[in-house]
């Protein structure tokens, strides 16, 4: 004797499942479950890709490929860090490292300045990204801000870095 299978939807649906249905959910609940899983995957993807300060609820029905393409074209923190690393010929690990040598601290402070001015990231956000306390980020930002007023070489270098990550690829 075969036992009658019931839908296992969390709200207690009592719909009987036919023998040809391999799912544990009835048709309407299976569709709803698929929509919930898709929404969760998309939310997880966008929460990972977009910093919290820039997240906005999107009501668009654009295909995911269009959304991904648009995200890649936007200015990102990773893009700024990569460009700074290339300009100063250091690796990302060296940029984020605890090393206090000028070889690494100067590009790190330039990155702090650019993240703050161009992406309007908060000091704590930049600190989490660079594994530093927000007060260190504030110091680095202010230091570069002061140096830009008096050091033409640094001003030129920062503008060159900006032009590299803002220009179309």
Automatic annotation (TrEMBL):
Which Gene3D superfamilies does the UniProt record give? 1.10.1750.10
Where do transmembrane segments lie in this chain?
A: none
Q: Kindly state one GO CC term assigned in the UniProt record.
A: plasma membrane
Q: Can you name one GO molecular function term for this protein?
A: DNA replication origin binding
**Residue ranges of every copy of the Chromosomal replication initiator DnaA C-terminal domain listed in the record:** 76-144
What name has this protein been given in UniProt?
Chromosomal replication initiator DnaA C-terminal domain-containing protein
Q: Which GO terms describe its biological process?
A: DNA replication initiation; regulation of DNA replication
Q: Which organism is it from?
A: Candidatus Yanofskybacteria bacterium RIFCSPHIGHO2_02_FULL_50_12
């Amino acid at each position: 004797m075969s036992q009658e299978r019931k839908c296992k939807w969390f709200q207690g649906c009592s719909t009987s499942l036919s023998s040809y249905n391999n799912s544990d959910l009835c048709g309407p609940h299976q569709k709803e479950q698929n929509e919930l899983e898709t929404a969760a995957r998309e939310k997880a993807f966008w929460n990972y890709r977009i910093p919290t300060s820039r997240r906005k609820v999107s009501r668009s029905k654009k295909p995911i490929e269009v959304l991904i393409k648009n995200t890649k074209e936007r200015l990102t923190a990773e893009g700024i860090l990569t460009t700074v690393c290339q300009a100063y010929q250091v690796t990302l690990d060296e940029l984020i490292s605890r090393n206090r040598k000028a070889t690494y601290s100067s590009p790190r402070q330039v990155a702090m300045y650019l993240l703050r001015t161009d992406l309007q990231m908060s000091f704590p956000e930049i600190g989490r990204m660079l594994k530093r306390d927000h007060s260190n980020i504030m110091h680095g930002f202010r230091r570069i801000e002061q140096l830009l007023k008096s050091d033409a070489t640094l001003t030129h270098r920062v503008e060159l870095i900006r032009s590299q990550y803002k220009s179309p690829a």
